[in-house]
Design a protein that fits this description.
There is one protein chain. By secondary structure, the protein is an all-alpha fold. The protein has one domain. Helix content is 82%, strand content 0%.
């Protein structure tokens, strides 16, 4: 990693602490969303859970882990390696989810906005994360930190939007309490 990279990150410390805290809090709220829709958490709905609930939690967790790594007192090489691994694993996971959604027919049955937020934006966010890390690793380019922030915020926004969509979906399908 370019020698100046860790110094450049110092100015972004508060941003990463704030975003990481938000992601951690929102992971907790996903447990609330899951409990609201507990009646749907069955084997019959496993495909939907794997395509919508789990990826949303994974995106929140990716944001949290990325922010933790970025504020940790790491040297340049471990920092770069961890960020690249997070981006590559996330890109692989988001791509698998997208393909799985297509195979299960979800991409044909959900509207364009859902396709964007559940499938395309996580792939784009992870691509941006990998690109930002490579820009920082190879060139020490300060603009890479802005690209990194965009990637993290895109993943956070996708997860927030999807968590709301899941919750709204579950609430509209649950009947009155006995």
């Amino acid at each position: 990693m370019h020698g100046n990279a860790t110094g450049l990150l110092h100015a972004w410390h508060d941003f990463y602490v704030l975003i990481g805290t938000a992601a951690a809090t929102l992971i907790g709220l996903m447990f609330v969303a899951a409990s609201i829709s507990a009646s749907y958490m069955t084997e019959k709905h496993q495909a939907g859970i794997q395509s919508f609930y789990t990826p949303t939690v994974v995106h929140f967790a990716t944001v949290l882990i990325t922010c933790v790594v970025l504020v940790a007192p790491l040297g340049a090489m471990p920092l770069g390696a961890l960020l690249l691994a997070i981006g590559a694993v996330g890109l692989g996971y988001a791509s698998v989810v997208w393909v799985r959604m297509g195979r299960r027919g979800f991409t044909a049955s959900i509207d364009l906005a859902d396709r964007f937020w559940y499938a395309l934006s996580p792939v784009a966010g992870h691509l941006l994360l990998v690109a930002a890390v490579l820009m920082l690793l190879l060139f020490g380019d300060e603009r890479s930190l802005e690209v990194l922030a965009v990637a993290i915020v895109l993943l956070l926004l996708a997860a927030i939007r999807n968590a709301w969509d899941i919750t709204a979906w579950a609430v509209t399908r649950s009947g009155p309490s006995p």
